[in-house]
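Continued from yesterday's entry.
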Amino acid sequence: MKSNSQVLKSVISLSVFVVFVVIFYFLIGQDKTELPSQLIDRPAPVFKVSDLLQEDLIHTQEDFKGKITLLNVWASWCPSCYSEHPFWKNYAENKDIVLVGLNYRDKKQKALKFLREQGNYYDWNLFDQNGRLGIEFGVYGAPETFLIDPKGKVRYRHVGVVSPEVYQNIFLPLIDKIKKGF
C-alpha cells in the first residue's frame, strides 16, 4: 500500500508530464517563420537612417510610400544571409516591387565587403549599425523580410530565409493581393 506522500508525488509527476505534453502539442504545429508582429497592417515605424553606400543620403519611412517594398534584414555575420542572398537577384527582377536591404547590427566595412563579394541586388540599403531600427521593426535576428504596401503599412513578416518556394508561395500571392487593392 502506498503512503500519502507517494500518491502525492505520483499525482504531481503525472500533472507535470501532462502540462509538458499539452505545451508540446500546441507548439509543434506552429510555423516558426510567422512570428506575431505588432506592425502587421500598421504603418512602418518612423525612422531616419543613412544609406549604407551613400552616408549623406538619409532614408525615412516615407520612402516606402507609393510602391510595394520588400525590406530584407541582413548582415555579414549571418550565415543564413549568405545562402539566401543569391536568390535576391531573381526577386529583384520583379518590377512590381522595390527591394530594400536593412543591414542590421553590422560593421560598415564588413557589410560593404559582403555586397561587393555577394552582389548588391537591393535598390537601396538602410544602415542600422546599432540595431535601433531593427528594434522598431521587432527584429529577432537576420534574415527577416517585411512586405510593405504602397501606403507604407507592414503587411507581412517572414522570419528566416526567403527561398524560391517561400517567395513563390507566400510573397507573390500577397504582392498580387496588394496590387489588386486588398
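--- second protein ---
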Amino acid sequence: MTQVQPTQKVYGAWQQIPVTPSRQMTVDAQQMAAHWRRCSLSSDFWAQYMSLFIPTRVTEEYLGRGEVEQVLAYLLNELFENCAKFSNGSHQLVRYVAWSQDDSMLFQVTNHILPEGQAPFAKLIDEMLNNDPHELYFQRLEENVELDLDGSGLGYLTLIKDFGVQFSFRFRPQENGSTAVDVQAKVSLQQE
C-alpha cells in the first residue's frame, strides 16, 4: 500500500518567484543557536548587502538606503533567531533566499520542525494574519508579562505594524519525518 504524503499548507499571500534569487545562504540551526551572535552578524551582513541595491539618491516616495538597511537588519535578525530557536528534528539546515524587485524586496527562510510543532505555530500565524496587528501586539505584550510566554509572535507583529512587512508561511511535510517551514517576508521600498 502506498502512503499518501500530507499536502502543504499555506498562510498569507505566498509568492511563487520563478527567477533565480539575488542571494542565498545555508547555515546550521544548531550552530546559530550555540553561537547566538551569528544571527545578528548574518542579519547585519545581509541587510547591508541587500541595501546596496538601493540607489544612493531616491525620490521622496521611496525609502532611502539607510532606512532600508535598518528595516532589513531587524527583519532578518528576527527570522534568523526564530530559525535558531525553533528548529528541531533530524534536519537542522536553515536556508535563506532573497530577491530584489523594482519596488520591494522578498526574503524567504526555511527551517524544519517536528510535525507536532505545526499546529501551535499555525494557530499563532492565523491569529497574526487575521487580526488587527496593533491590538494583537498589545494583547501579546500583556500576556508575555503575565505568563512569561515564549514564541508569542511579538517580533512578527512589530514588523507588520511598524514597518508594513507582509508575511506568508508555508508548511511542507518531509519524508524524513520533519516539516519544512518556509517564511516569506515582503518589504516595500516605497514610503507608506
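Strands lie at 9-11, 23-28, 93-100, 104-113, 166-173, 179-188. Residues 21-114+164-188 form a domain with the Heat Shock Protein 90 fold (CATH 3.30.565). Will compare against the first tomorrow.
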